[in-house]
Amino acid sequence: MHRFANPARFLKIATALTPWLMWTGIALLVGGCYGGLFLSPPDYLQGETVRILYIHVPAAWLGMAGWGGIGSASLMYLIWRHPLAAVAAKAIAAPGAIFTAICLVTGSIWGRPTWGTWWEWDGRMTSMLVMLLLYMGYLAFAGALREKSDNDRALAIFGVIGIVNLPIIHGSVTWWKSLHQPPSLGMKGSAIASEILWPLGLTMSGFTLLFAAIILIRMRTILAMTRTEARLLRMALD
Amino acid sequence: MKPKQQRLLLGVVAVAALVGAGFIALSALESKAAYFYTPSDIRQNAVAVGKPIRLGGMVADQSIKRGMDGVTVRFIVADENSQIPVFFKGITPDLFKEKSGVIAEGSMARSGEFIATNLLAKHDEKYMPPELSKGLSTQGASKP
Q1: Residues B26 and B55 occupy one common structural domain
Q2: Per DSSP, what are the bridge partners of residue B75?
Q3: CA dist A153 to A85, A175, B4, B34, B81, Å?
Q4: What mean pLDDT do residues A117-141 have?
Q5: Residue B125 domain-assigned (yes or no)
Q6: Mean local confidence (pLDDT), B29-51
Q7: A53 contacts in chain B (CB < 8 Å)
Q8: Of B22, B35, B36, Cβ closest to residue A168
Q9: Is the same domain home to B23 and B43?
Q10: Which DSSP letter does residue B49 get?
């Protein structure tokens, strides 16, 4: 892990890796969307509405995995002071927030025909909304601190504290009586029939690879911007 | 101990504490964060008449009785141990049916009946194609 903390080495690997991640991700997504829209059967109870699952579940996973990434990168920054870890955490925040928002919106659209409501203050929905607010707070904080790298530590502490919400989101449907159903996929297998499940595997891995590609692109952008700023500063001082 | 190791230890302790705090919050809020009461909860805790609550459970088999006007409906919400009769006037959700989960918003009447003002269908975690469900319809009962 420490080997990759060197920005020059990171840039070399990230630049080579990005197109592979992106195009494989897009290919899997196209396959998953085609399978999910045209090949998989409707659900016995929900009918065609079930197809929103192919977007909703990957979005929920990436929203949560995104904060998992912010939390671990922030922790690495706090412990080993790798500047690249701070860059990674900042790069994850906006895509993570967008996927969390997609999860909430698609869930709401699914909830209307299935449950008969757009929104309820149920444990899962509320904890997911809290996560979106955490993301927005993180982004606002990061934007406000842009100039001073001292304060990267305060931002990293925010990133670590946000981890507290992850077990709550995960447990909200099994520990609390909730409107949202318990997880369909778990250690014990799947409660989703295989005909409906396979496109979900494609969109899950496709979105995940695309997410990784976006993070790498954003990290490279942040590094390039830092370099430009440093060079401009040097030129101004000369 | 080097400062780096101290920070590592502190970081590990901090994450353990945060995840622990999340789980403590989950268990401490178990009764407060519940989205609905089960019929057993209502029977055991003697919920006050007229207090707005949500009642959740399975719609009992062959309990749905629709009125002549087409909008009044009576049914029984059950869990493993208790049953509550429910009265509702309005359009029921598409997924509202016997032996599947339902959440009714409303209050208990003096008669012991639950007067619902709104019904939500509760979906379970099972997803399957229509052909497959026909074979399973005899064991279609799922948890609320």
Answers
A1: no
A2: B86
A3: 11, 34, 15, 37, 54
A4: 94
A5: yes
A6: 84
A7: 127
A8: B22
A9: no
A10: T
Check if B120 contacts A (Cβ < 8 Å): yes
Nearest-angstrom CA–CA distance, A59 and A15: 25
DSSP label of B33: S
SS3 content of chain B, % helix, strand, coil (to 5): 30, 30, 40
Asked if the structure places residue B144 within a domain, the reply is no
Please name the residues between 16 and 75 in chain B that touch chain A, using a CB distance below 8 Å.
18-19, 21-23, 25-27, 29-30, 33-36, 38, 56
Q: Could you say which DSSP state residue A47 is in?
A: B
Helix, strand, coil share of chain A (percent; to 5): 80, 5, 15
Complex confidence, ipTM: 0.79
Name the minimum distance, in Å, from the CA of A1 to any CA of chain B. 15
Does the pLDDT of residue B85 top 90, yes or no? yes
* A178·B35 Cβ contact <8 A: yes
User: pLDDT at position B143, please?
Assistant: 41
Q: Do B80 and B31 form a contact (C-beta atoms < 8 A)?
A: no
- The CATH number covering residue B101 comes to 2.40.50.140
Cβ pair B103:A196 closer than 8 A: no
| Chain A residues near residue B8 by CB distance under 8 angstroms | 79
Calculate the alpha carbon distances from A223 to A68, A152, A213 in Å: 22, 15, 15
For residue A44, what are the CA distances in angstroms to A39, A142, A196, B132? 16, 46, 11, 8
Q: Are B89 and B95 in contact (CB under 8 A)?
A: no
